[in-house]
Amino acid sequence: MGMSAENRAPAIETGSSDVSRAPLRTDPAYAPTIVLENVTRVYPGAASLFARRSAGTTALCGLNLAIDNGEIFGLVGESGSGKTTAARLIVRLEKADEGTVRYKGQDIAALRGSRLKRFRREVQMIFQDPYHSLNPYQSIGSIVAEPLHIHRWRTRAARQEKIQEALAQVGLTPPNDFLARYPHQLSGGQRQRVAIARAMVMDPQVLIADEPTSMLDATIAAQIYAILSEIQKRGGLTMLFITHNLAAAHYLCDRIGVMYRGYLMEIGPADEIIERPFHPYTQALLDALPRFGHARPERQFATLRKTRRMHPSLGGCPFFERCVPADPDHCSQDHPPMRIVGERHYVSCFGYTSGAGSQPNKGMALSTSVK
Ligand code: ADP
Ligand code: MG
Question: What is the pTM of this model?
Fold first, then answer.
């Protein structure tokens, strides 16, 4: 693929090519279940007025990410940052143009036959829109049973029992009341519960939830978070939780990765990201949250410029155009490498200077602490 080298997210400065895999060598407890290595995904562009064919949209650019066994990892970023693309690549709904996606150490692009089948069973995904992800002509019982049928799972009686169990697990009780119903007879929250139940009947090891509550109101969303949290704890599931809401990610996740236009800007333990955000973009996301934002509305947008599209072939920081950069020449020319700023906490920003100790982005910090 024709990605220019300077446009790709660089390797971390510590010598490892993979940010969150760094601790792996020393601590086996961090064994990752999902690993993305230098993953790039470019959607082909449509013909435009000025060019026969545009360069396309780079949805992900050199993404390095590892999700540990048994953790809930939150991928956060505003719309268009590449979160759904990352999820689709991980479940192999799409293939990476460059780089590798691994599940338990295996390149998923190479999975065939029974190993692919097992992967399909073990890695499940819940989609954003519960109104469109369920077949309106199928009963709830048949929707939840479908994966069991596809995988020819055991006997009919065992399947019935499994379906009941899954519905009860997501709070659709008594399960018998729901089996014969159809999606249009359910609320949005109930539909999302059905989607979770359908994922859970396969006893997955990995559950990917792509903005599962963005179509739901806040109280219903909180119920869905509680269900996901309980399911994860009970089953020791590895979970990827995708959201544009940092507060939701903080509530649910062990670690958080912040994405912007296909790049990972910051990654770290959830508490660290909320309490000591280093990247100006993370800080801006936090300031947008009433619960976490500083009571300094006059400063809120002071360091954020109006978005202008940056040409993807420019090599600078993807956030440059919205930032008051620490070092304008540098920030506009080079992609900031990932640097370690705390335990398992990394940031891609020239504003961080290691000499400044733990001072996040001196001179351009929006909010650096939570009160
Ligand atoms: P997010 O889930 O964070 O909102 P997406 O992964 O959906 O982001 O999209 C990332 C970028 O890729 C966006 O600019 C989006 O317009 C583009 N994109 C996503 N899917 C497609 C597609 N099928 N064809 C073309 N462009 C796409
Ligand atoms: Mg999305």
Answer: 0.85
